[in-house]
Amino acid sequence: MSSWAPMRAHPRERSLLARIRDVIDRFAAATPARFAIAIFSALVVVLTTLLVLPISARDGQATPLVDALFTAVSAICVTGLTTVDMATHWSAFGNTAILIGLQVGGIGVLTLASMLGLVVSRRLGLRQRLIAASDTNPSRIHVGPVSESQAIRLGEIGGLLATVAISALAIEFVLALVIIPRLLVEGFDVWPAIWQGFYFAASAFTNTGFVPAASGMEAFAQDPWMLGAIGTGVFLGSLGFPVIFAVVRNLKDGARLSVHARLTLFTTVLLIFIGALAVLVLEWNNTNTIGGQSLISRPLTSTFLSTMTRSGGFSTIDIDELNGSTLLVFDMLMFVGGGSASTAGGIKVTTLAVLFLAALAEARGDNDMHAFERRIPTDVLRLAVSVTLWGATIVAVSTIAILQITKEPLDRVLFDVISAFATCGLSTGLTESLPDSGKYILAATMWAGRVGTVTLAAALAASQRRQLFTRAEERPIVG
């Protein structure tokens, strides 16, 4: 008789778990955007709870809630902005929690969820493929299944997830192998060098910008080896997993690179070059930045800083010492950010490319946008305009609020707000001195920037209306 009760309770327990799983599945299938936001917010709450614990701080004292929340959002959003000294405030437990958080945020919540589902079920069902596809191409959330060639096809999602896992681990491992010897040469002990080497690698590839060393990047300010390794990690992370997947497929099978991959690569390299040239020209005589460096180091520093505006967040100079003109250039570069479905933030380089192609088509009198001998549908342009306007609105509202709270100069406030929205992590030093209310506003800005304006807009829309008629056309005067 004693063994009969557990046997009868087991089916009821499974039934309860099955019902909970069905509710979650229905929620995920019906509103994938809101499901993404729910998972993302839950991870922020979990990491905040861990960082508040006394065990997370090196001094054994509980971290204030606002600082724990800000750090958690910054880690999950892979931003890099911080209100505490990352090298001295957190204990080994806290640093480990932060490292896991930025890895989760870098890979992408939806992609990670699909990877875990693949591990559990050893196969991908249609729902898991749709969730992963939404993470790699947000327009699927906005307008449903899309057929453009730059999208990752549902049948390729399994290959994409494998590429995500393998590329992330492989790139970070190689970067760590490159960085660790340099830390040993610098005088670090073996275990601190290994720990900080992997921390630097993960922070670079995920475009977070957290620096585990107490001295920051000061020791490597003009070191080609270290700056090259970190810059390469940030560049690869900012391309996006669909681009990495396309390049791997191209090298393996000789497949043609998609329009998305080509636009991302071309625009990213072009913006890095423009940014580096701008820093060289605008900061050449500024002895507080690159003006005091050698003629060989100036191009290196300029290129590194331009690469960091992709969303990297590492800096070898005091950002607050930059000229106002350079800060404005960085504002524009950070607002654009990196590639879609990448570890970078911003409105994305493909959004900028589509807007430019639309302007070019209008100037030429063409009815359609073209790139690399392919036609780009007009709904992509509408989405690009929506993303840009939503992003600009978020930045404007946050800037006005923090200006009112702090009374700081506009250029400093605007820089840190755009850095938060674009999950970049570069700062003029304003973030550390913000009052609690300003920290909460900047944390919300990071959250909105990482969730993505497309996902946020789709989540706010209760449903998509389908009109069975077309209204009479009338053209307003534009321009």
UniProtKB/TrEMBL annotation:
<feature type="transmembrane region" description="Helical">
    <location>
        <begin position="35"/>
        <end position="53"/>
    </location>
</feature>
<dbReference type="InterPro" id="IPR003445">
    <property type="entry name" value="Cat_transpt"/>
</dbReference>
<keyword id="KW-1133">Transmembrane helix</keyword>
<feature type="transmembrane region" description="Helical">
    <location>
        <begin position="65"/>
        <end position="84"/>
    </location>
</feature>
<keyword id="KW-0813">Transport</keyword>
<feature type="transmembrane region" description="Helical">
    <location>
        <begin position="96"/>
        <end position="120"/>
    </location>
</feature>
<feature type="transmembrane region" description="Helical">
    <location>
        <begin position="332"/>
        <end position="360"/>
    </location>
</feature>
<keyword id="KW-0472">Membrane</keyword>
<feature type="transmembrane region" description="Helical">
    <location>
        <begin position="263"/>
        <end position="282"/>
    </location>
</feature>
<keyword id="KW-0812">Transmembrane</keyword>
<feature type="transmembrane region" description="Helical">
    <location>
        <begin position="157"/>
        <end position="180"/>
    </location>
</feature>
<feature type="transmembrane region" description="Helical">
    <location>
        <begin position="440"/>
        <end position="462"/>
    </location>
</feature>
<keyword id="KW-1003">Cell membrane</keyword>
<dbReference type="Pfam" id="PF02386">
    <property type="entry name" value="TrkH"/>
</dbReference>
<feature type="transmembrane region" description="Helical">
    <location>
        <begin position="380"/>
        <end position="405"/>
    </location>
</feature>
<dbReference type="GO" id="GO:0005886">
    <property type="term" value="C:plasma membrane"/>
</dbReference>
<keyword id="KW-0406">Ion transport</keyword>
<protein>
    <submittedName>
        <fullName>Trk-type K+ transport system membrane component</fullName>
    </submittedName>
</protein>
<dbReference type="GO" id="GO:0008324">
    <property type="term" value="F:monoatomic cation transmembrane transporter activity"/>
</dbReference>
<dbReference type="GO" id="GO:0030001">
    <property type="term" value="P:metal ion transport"/>
</dbReference>
<feature type="transmembrane region" description="Helical">
    <location>
        <begin position="225"/>
        <end position="251"/>
    </location>
</feature>
